[in-house]
Design goal:
Elements lengths: L1 E9 L2 E20 L6 E24 L3 E19 L7 E3 L4 E3 L7 E4 L2 E4 L3 H4 L13 E3 L14 E4 L5 E11 L2 E11 L2 E3 L47 E3 L2 E12 L2 H5 L5 E15 L28 E9 L1
Antiparallel strand pairs: 1-2, 2-3, 3-4, 4-11, 5-6, 6-7, 7-10, 8-9, 11-12, 12-15, 13-14, 15-16, 16-17
């Protein structure tokens, strides 16, 4: 493992920087035997993680009564599978084929087709690559290998459940007895697999996005026809992936510390009253309850089957020191 860590103190500015390049070897890996349904475990895995972590902080005071502090952090990580038994060209499949782990890609990436639209009519289909049984209203997939037809050979990398970028910040204010503390956090670059949408319910139980489903030519170029017998529309593809990017106010607290002169008469050394809120606001484009990466299994993560929502929690209290 190679790592470089440095802290800089420049007056009121604090800078911390870390760079790392770590390769983990001899990972226990379940490998399927060639031309056989049996598998065995062996130490074949080799995974690389490279990245940086940066944090900045600034604290200052204005006059006698006003103080403030600002801090921000950012991290980036690139994950790559270096080896899982290259002599046999192994592929580890997760979540029924939705995720795959192969040499040269990130661990447990999403594997499937890329949606390019909806077949609008029979004449439209004659100009586009398609499955042999495709019909108007079905999802149109990208012909990645250019052979003029859509087949399993057109599947490939379509995203990762693991966010490469994470960031956050903190902001504090103090004025006489009042104080404010705001904590921010976010992630970007990952995908959420909306596996809950692959279930075939009665028409009255579909999610709201299906209200925009294809019915006739020109009605939709995103949502396929509302017909559960069209199996091609339930294949793993970018249609079922959503960007997991989000930004959240993770914590906000406002408090007031009473003056000691008033407290000493009552035999109290310190007294502070506060109002606190956790997860009070999240900005995200996901349609599920939570945009955070749903890890589950490392080899088959990122599937949202109705994850429990992150609750907003509000509290208030009084701290006393006698």
């Amino acid at each position: 493992m190679h790592c470089y860590h440095q802290i800089y103190l420049l007056g009121k500015l604090n800078v911390e920087f870390t760079w790392y390049d770590r390769t983990t070897t001899d990972i226990l890996t379940g490998v399927t035997l060639p031309n056989d349904s049996r598998s065995y475990f062996t130490n074949l895995g080799q995974i690389s993680n490279k990245g940086i972590e940066v944090s900045l902080g600034w604290n200052d005071k204005i006059g006698r009564d006003f103080t403030y502090g600002l801090s921000a952090n950012f991290s980036y990580n690139k994950n790559e599978v270096k080896s899982i038994g290259n002599n046999f060209n192994f592929t580890i499949i997760g979540n029924g084929g939705v995720n795959q782990t192969t040499t040269g890609q990130s661990i447990g990436y999403f594997y499937g087709y890329t949606q390019t639209g909806i077949y609008q009519s029979s004449s439209d289909m004659s100009k586009q690559a398609a499955f042999a049984n495709s019909l108007p209203g079905d999802i149109r997939y990208s012909d990645n290998n250019g052979d003029g037809i859509i087949s399993p050979a057109d599947r490939g990398y379509i995203g990762s459940p693991f966010p490469p970028y994470s960031f956050g910040g903190n902001f504090t204010l103090g004025y006489k007895g009042f104080d404010l503390d705001v904590d921010l956090q976010g992630m970007t670059g990952h995908k959420i697999y909306t596996q809950r949408r692959t279930a075939t319910f009665a028409v009255l139980n579909y999610e709201a996005n299906r209200l925009n489903a294809y019915s006739t030519a020109g009605t939709s170029n995103i949502e396929p026809i509302l017909d559960n017998t069209r199996g091609n529309n339930f294949l793993m593809s970018t249609y079922y992936l959503e960007p997991g990017d989000y930004f959240r106010i993770r914590n906000l607290q406002i408090g007031y510390s009473f003056q000691q002169k008033l407290l000493l008469k009552a035999g109290i050394k310190k007294a502070r009253i506060f109002l606190n809120g956790q997860n009070i606001k999240t900005w995200s484009k996901v349609t599920g309850y939570s945009p955070e990466p749903i890890i589950g299994s490392i080899l088959g993560g990122g599937a949202d089957n109705g994850s429990y929502p992150v609750p907003a929690v509000y509290s208030f209290g009084l701290n006393l020191t006698f």
